[in-house]
Every structure is written in C-alpha cells, then in structure tokens.
Amino acid sequence: MFPQSSRHGYEEIDDTHPSHTPYSHKIKAVCSLAKKKLNGVWTKKTLYKRFPILRWMPPYKTDDAIGDLLAGVTVGLTVIPQALAYANIAGLPTQYGLYGSFLGCLLYIFLGSCKDVPVGPTAVAALLTFQSLGGKGIEHAILLCFLTGVVQILMGLFGLGFLIDFVSGPVSSGFTSAAALIIVTSQMKDLLGIEASGNTFVDTWKSLFHDIHHVRLWDTILGVICIVILLLLRMVAQINIGRTEAPTKSDRIINKSLWVFGTSRNAILVVLCGIIGYMFCRNGEPPFLVIGTVPQGLPDFKLPPFGFSKEINGTTVVTTFVQMISDLGSGIIVVPLVGILENISICKAFANGKPIDPTQELIAIGTANLLNSFVQSFPGTGSLSRSAVNNASGVRTPLGGLYTGVLVILALLFFTPYFYYIPKATLAAVIIAAVVFMVEVKVVKPMWRSKKSDFFLGIVTFVSCLVLPLEQGILIGIGINLVYVLYHAARPKISVEKLFSRGGTEYLLLTPDRCLIFPSTDYVRNLVTKHSIRQGIPVVIDCSHIYGADYTAATVIESITSDFASRDQPLLFYNLKPSVSSVFEGLSPKDFVVFYNHDEVDELLKNRSCIKKQMEIMD
C-alpha cells in the first residue's frame, strides 16, 4: 500500500491512490500559497490600517464621548432636512434620502480614517444620480448605489486611488461650480410651484420658461423668505461677541449659543414651516405645495434589484440586469469617481498636516454604498457642509456618526407623519441656500493670474457641464487635462548654452528638463540634431533632470550617437543616472560616453582626438 523506493532512489508513486492524484498536489500547493498570502495580509499592522477603530477606541475618554455626542446630534439635525431635500434633487420620493443617511454613518465608524466625514447623501451625488437615471425609477437608483460601492471597493483593493489625481484643481472647480448652478436650477420649480424637467442646465431653464405662467405666488413668497432667513442665520453663526484673544465666560456662552442657533438653521426653519403647513392643512387646502406622505418605519433590508418587472397598461414589462446597466451608462464610472473625489477633498481639508489614505477611504465609502443599496438608498459620500459642522462642533472620533445615525433612525420611526406638512418651497430654499456657496468665484482671479491655460481648462469644464449632462462635462474636462499633461510630457524644455571648458575647448551644453519617454523622443532628437549641426562643435547633454527612460528613448539615443559618430562630432552625456544608463546601454549604442565631473571634458575630448588621429594613420 505504501510507495516503494526504486534502485535509483526515486519514489514510484501509485497514481491510483486518492491521496496522490495530480489534482490533490495542485490543490495542496494552492492552499499553501493562499495561506501564506493571508498570513502576509492579515498582519497586525494591516488590521489596524484597515480597521482604524482599533487605533482610536482603546484610548477613548469621557471628553471624547461628550465631543462626539454634541457633534453627532448637531450633524443629525443638519442631515435630516438635507436628506429630504437631496432626494428631491435625485428625482426620488423623499424617504429615500433618509434611507441613505444612517447605515453609512454607522459603518464609517469602523472603516473610516477621518473623524470629520459624515457619510450620506450629498447635493452633487444626488444630481449625478438624477442625470444617470434619466427618468428611470428607484430600482435603477438602488442598483447604481450597489455598483458605485462595488467600483469603489475594487478601486481600493487594486490601489487605484491615484486616478483621482487626474482630476486637476481647475477641472474640479469648473465641475463643482456648474453642479451648484444646475442644483439651484433644479430647485426653481419647487420655489416657483410649477412643473419643469430637464437633464441639463439649458434644458431645465427652457422647461421653466415654458411653464412660467403657472407660477404659484405663495410658494414663491415662502421660498424667498426662507432663503433670506437661512442666509441671515448663516451670518448669525459667524458672529463673535467680545474679545477674540481672551473672551469671558459669558462671551463664550453667547457665542456658542449663536453658533448652535445659526448652525441648526435648516432644522429650525423646517420645523417652523412644518408647523405653518400643519396649521393651513387643518383648515383646508394650504396655499403652497407640501411634500405629502412619507412612509413611516425603517426600510426593508434586502438585495438590490438585479432586474425587475412592472405592469404598464395591463402589460408586464421585464427589465433585465444587462438592460439596467445599459440604462445607467457612464454613471457607473463617473458617480464612484466623483464620490471619492468629494470625500478625499474633505479628508485633505481637515487633515491638519496628517497623511491621507485614499485606499482606506475608497474601501470605507465603497462598503457604505454597497450596504446602503440593501436599504434602498441612492449613492452617497462624505458631505463637505456637514463635515464643516462636524469639525466646528468639536468632534473627536468617527463615533460621532453613531448619534447622527440614531437620530435619522428615530426620525424614520416616529416623525415621518409630520414631514407631510413641510412645504416644498422650504426644502428648495434649504438646498439653494446651501449650494449657492459651492460656486467657486474666488478662484477665478488667482487662476487667471497664475496660469491662463488652467483658467481656460476650468471655463471649458464649467461650460461643458452646463450644456451637456454632468458626467459628460467632467469627462471632457478630464480628457482635455490629460491632453495637457501628455503635451507637456511630449515637449520637454531644453536649454541651450555655449560654454568653454577649463582647457579652452568650446562645447554646446543641452539640458532637458524632464524624463525621456516615447512621446518626447523624436522631439528631443530633432532639437539635439538641429543645434548640433548648426554649431558644429562638441555637444554635452546634461542628464541631471532625466530620472527615467524607456525602450523608445534608448533607440533614439542609439540613433543620435550613430549620427554624431558618422559626422565625427563628439557627443558626451553628463550626470546620467545609473538606472537610465542601463536602459540606454541595453542597445549597445556607438560611442556612448558618460561622465560625472565637468573637469573630465577636456580629457575626454583629447582622448577622442587621439583615437581619431590613430584611425587616420591606420587608414
């Protein structure tokens, strides 16, 4: 039964034995490799990196708990009216904004690396959802949330967080400013009490003007008054009474009270207008539109729809998963990218000099979106406005999200019947008063003074996002930005100087300012050839700024050295990095001479002259 040893010392394996099949050996090898990989991945360092709660929870103190409680409640009072309004931007029933406002906050406690980030619906994410849906129903929004989470998690696992670096400041500013104007435009219909629709800024305004004769006076008056009150309360939150350097206790109490009052402006205004709406509804039809019935209770925890069927005019229409993917289009890529861009921007704004981990944020936000799709939410991310409130409230750790999530859950369980009476114009005012400050007017003048091409890039992105759907506009901005980057990579600057060595030999010094890669090689070759032929003296290429090269660059260097040798014109390479030199030497270029000391120029040229004379004598 046991394998016998042969006279050559090899085992004769009985292939019929079940433990010695070829497949069993492969499976054992795979299992062994997987075990080693897992042991390498799940180290203590990695565990603490992927679950940041393990770092900040052990030293958690009472002061931290008080700071998180106050901040969490303050953010909760801010997110509830915002969530109701953002669902309207996404073109979805009001309750779906609240569905996406509690689970992400709770999950971010364990996976989030930034204490200031409150995860939930945002204005930009809601607008991108609306444009990606294109009039489709809630099923598409929930699937988009699921796919957004999947894409973000995969980006995190494969270390693709660097992709957001291709969205430059001008592109981001143009996109954000255009998105703010589109959001304001989308809320004009509720502010005026009319019907309007449209996927772009231009289309929406056309629709508004088409129905402008149906404007409801009381909705407009209420909306304008609410916007004025919100802007005034925003100013109240910034008032500081007394001395700034050493305020008295009473000054601190008054300033803190004013700040809380101003910061809670959305919740205060929604409650007051809800009471007004309730009083009108008791006496009959209110003079303004209200949001209507909001289902009470928590959403069911279930799989997102990977296909669904609906009965339309007595006919059952089936929509498959593939068709839903096709309907969502580029939104599947753009929504996750913009979401993580928003989140990383918040992390940088409140980092206080600490390093940012984009991979961990991708995993955290992606997991939040993935699980939010199980509670019927649309995509969300970190909110800049709520992050500012969170930071100013004195949040200490991500545990502040616990109290925010609990408040939203309580609102869903007990307060949704009262949401019926909230005027639509009030929610529109909440959104307009919040996003109008997203228009980045302050960056226009510095951008113009700094670099005109960046200003042009920002304007093109801004106009593209207004005229076209938002996801197409930002893709155009990123595309033009990449063309800029590639152009600069393909056109390095080369300084040209005529110098004399210590021995009095005149030579031409050419200094490229960046790496030699395939887009730039022909350009560099033409410049080197042109200047060398025109001057007809020895040429030295200063390679101090060349930190990398590729095969195409090596072929060009081989060609250049060959051309110089055929013209019998000396060519030397100064201060070439060893890693780059090895790339060039791979093709064995002719007369390839590298030196690292300027004093060697005379000796190298003299040796070359001696060699030339010897060759002439031999000829």
Automatic annotation (TrEMBL):
Membrane topology: Multi-pass membrane protein
Database matches in InterPro entries: SLC26A/SulP_dom (IPR011547), SLC26A/SulP_fam (IPR001902), STAS_dom (IPR002645), STAS_dom_sf (IPR036513)
Compartments where located: Membrane
Primary location class: membrane
GO cellular component, one term: membrane
Ranges annotated as biased composition (Basic and acidic residues): 8-18
Occurrences of domain SLC26A/SulP transporter (ranges): 67-461
Keywords in alphabetical order: Membrane, Transmembrane, Transmembrane helix
Top-level taxon of the source organism: Eukaryota
A Pfam family assignment: STAS
Entry-linked Gene3D superfamilies: STAS domain
Region (Disordered): 1-21
TM region positions: 65-84, 141-164, 217-237, 258-280, 321-341, 400-420, 426-444, 456-487
Domain STAS: 508-597
CDD domains in alphabetical order: STAS_SulP_like_sulfate_transporter (cd07042)
GO biological process, one term: transmembrane transport
Annotated protein name in UniProt: SLC26A/SulP transporter domain-containing protein
